[in-house]
Amino acid sequence: MTTRTKEAVKTGLAMAIAYAIALQMGWDRPYWAAFAVAFISLPTAGQSLHKGALRMFGTLVAGAAALTLIALFPQQRWWFMIFLSGYIGFCTYLMTGKKNQYFYQVMAFVCAIICFDGGANSLNAFQTAMVRIQQTGMGILVYTLVSVFLWPRTTGGELIDASRQLVAVQRGLFETCRGLMMVKGSGVDSRSQRMQEMQLIYGLEQTLDGAEVDSYEVWAARHQWRRFLQESKMLMEILGRWRESLPEIEQLDLNKLLPNLAAMCSELEMRFGQIQGMLTGEAPAQALQPMALAIDKAELAARSHFERAALAVTKNQLDRLEALSRSLFDCVQDIKDFSRQASKPPRYKVPSGGLALDMDRIAAVVRVLSGLWLAFLIWVYIDPPGHTSFVVIAVSLGLAFARFPQLPVSKTLLPALLSCGFAGVVYVFVMPHLSGYLQLGLMIFAVTFGITYLFHTPQQGLSRAFGLASFAVLTSISNQQTYNFAAFANSTAMIVLGLSLLLVTSYIPLRPQPEKAFLRLLRRFFRQAEFLMSHMALDRKPQIGWIGRWKVMLYQNDILELPQKLAVWGGQIDQRLFPGNTPEQVQILVNSLHALALRIKDLLNARENPQSTLLVRELIDDARTWRRAIETLFQRWSDNPATEPDTDLQEKLALKLKAMETRIDQTLTLAEQEELRPEDYENFYQLTGSYRGLSESVIVHAQLAKGLDWAQWKEERF
Fold first, then answer.
1. Do 212 and 50 contact (CB within 8 A), yes or no?
2. Which helix (H) or strand (E) element contains residue 267?
3. What are the chain's domains?
4. What angle do CA 262, 267, 272 make, to 5 degrees?
């Protein structure tokens, strides 16, 4: 029996048992227990328990919030809606983040259910909240017991496998970058490795959530595992920055400049191998010792200042990679209990978003609240099919799609109609002929098995949940079962109207077409990059007020996130409608934007290092000329991403960099007459190296952008 079949059997069995218990207890709306089973059914017990816990805690918080709102505004309709909107908007913003999304989603839609289905009567609302909590808890318990005793699958083993795969991919990326560094112009492509790395890190985070629940060993070492995940993310970033900086050192003989580079690379490769071995249970051969790259000062003196700068950047990245690999080694050693004494985790300067806001999350809040108010006004002034349930359906659908804005709502209308049609056939032609729960339970099992078997992949999770939920709502199985075609038609109309309303609100505040969203995010990227460049002058830092610092923080965070969002939207563009741009071209363009974001971040970081007043004073004018050229180009791209730069862009930037190098030569000649610390030179070289790296990334993006057909993406369509 395949895993797909086993999971369908478990879900079907749990659904039938949940219905049986709810009917036996005489609970109103027994399909609420079915909802819990439908939404927490995941491949492993740990993942299901983790999601079930989020659903249970979310239901408890939602119940308390709903009863509080009803108690505060019993006769004040509009004030009640205003505060409910604030609560749902708050939940929506948090739900579209990166942590505990499902918890906040449950907090929002369960509160709406209790508020509207409970009516204005506080007693009814309290009873609705209690029944919801009871049935949610029972559904979670039933599925948990079924998944534990029937073909149990734990997440602990999957966590080890996922970790080994991640380390293997990162080792492969290291070897690729090492090869590119040693063998100039080898042309090795690492895009597939980087994409695989991102997917594995995302999957590892999800797996870890489940493993902490169903594995005592993982729970006992949960802090070390969280440290492993965080350091793997940092390693991904460092490897990416190292990969993007390699073209700048193509002309350098690194073996002469860094005599122990080969030994360092061999040591790092050995560390990756030992980390892999420890994850499989092999004890490490020996403890690690810190290593540091040495520079041949005589060879360095013969190089230009920009070559010295490029070398300083590369050395800094390799030093960070050495420290992080050593910390990762110690972390895995603690996880597998190979160390006699737990290592002390290093202190990282983790960037904080502070009060930075995400514009896309705010747009999701606007869409959900627009749907809430439109549904509420339609209920008040028109009274559609379903009455208050129409508002609940509209809010629930809006929240579900808020987490996946790239999914086209229009494509769900036909599956929804088919689901309603299937439920109608069962409701009219099958259920009236059933007698006793044995026959009813078999029917519930068969339907649940079929839907779960058909929509079994993680990407089909929303379709699976929608199919099970709509079937449960439309059939309305209860102890006092009645068959009323008019009621069924009203419920179907309610679902279709809810989806239609969702289709309308998907255009609020912006159009949802993937190509339009891609262009919009691309303009935002360059608008923010332009702002960062305008506030990156060497003499600007003391003059930035708190608003300027807040915007710099906001835009720094956003430009690092935007390439990933662009990749999601770019993957949704229908090539049949836009044959001029292939998915490969779009992905390469997104990769160039990611490189640009890393270069801007590197420049910001280098600018934060303390600089010699003498060196900065002499470089200000030339740096300002270079910065304004880049800023102008970003401004033109923010207005129109299709704008082609001057044909001699590369030559102009090269001339500006040449002027900067001449100025640097003159400045360093003056500096020899003064006392400068070694770190002054190093920080200065990192700063100038960041200038050159950003110039190279800008040129690469300009060349890639010329190969795209931008006009077809600008064409209007509904």
1. yes
2. helix 261-279
3. 3-154+356-505 (no CATH), 157-335 (1.20.58), 515-713 (1.20.58)
4. 125
Query: Residue 346 — pLDDT band, cuts 50, 70, 90?
Result: low
Residue 515 has pLDDT above 70, yes or no: yes
Which alpha helices (DSSP H) does 350-484 contain, by range?
Answer: 359-381, 388-402, 410-425, 436-454, 461-475
Is 582's pLDDT higher than 80?
yes
Average pLDDT taken over every residue of the chain: 85
The C-alpha atoms of residue 223 and residue 232 are separated, in whole angstroms, by 14
DSSP state of 347: P
Q: Can you tell me the distance from the alpha carbon of 396 to that of 88, in angstroms, rounded to the nearest whole number?
A: 11
- 456, two tokens: 């079994």
Q: Which residues contact 639 (CB under 8 A, 6 or more apart)?
A: 523
Number of Cβ within 10 Å of residue 69's Cβ equals: 21
- For residue 431, the 8-state DSSP code is G
Single-letter residue type at 609: N
Q: What is the mean pLDDT of residues 538-554?
A: 67
**pLDDT tens column, 101-121:** 999 999 999 999 998 886 656
CB 526 within 8 A of CB 421: no
pLDDT at 141 over 80: yes
Label residues 503-533 b or e (16+ Cβ within 10 Å = b). bebbebeeebbbbbbbbbbbebbbbbbbbbb
DSSP sequence for 270-289:
HHHHHHHHHHTTPPPSS---
Q: How far apart are CA 484 and CA 568, in angstroms?
A: 44
Q: Give 351's DSSP letter.
A: -
CB 85 within 8 A of CB 65: no
C-alpha 130, offset from chain centre = 34
Q: Which amino acid appears at position 124 of this protein?
A: N
DSSP codes, 527-562: HHHHHHHHT--TTTGGG--HHHHHHHHHHHHHHHHH
Query: Residue 661 pLDDT more than 80?
Result: no
Q: Which of 487, 498, 554 is nearest to 527 (CA)?
A: 554
Instruction: Check if the beta carbon of residue 30 is closer than 8 Å to that of residue 17.
Output: no
**Cis preceding linkage at 509, omega within 30:** yes
DSSP string, 388-402: HHHHHHHHHHHHHHH
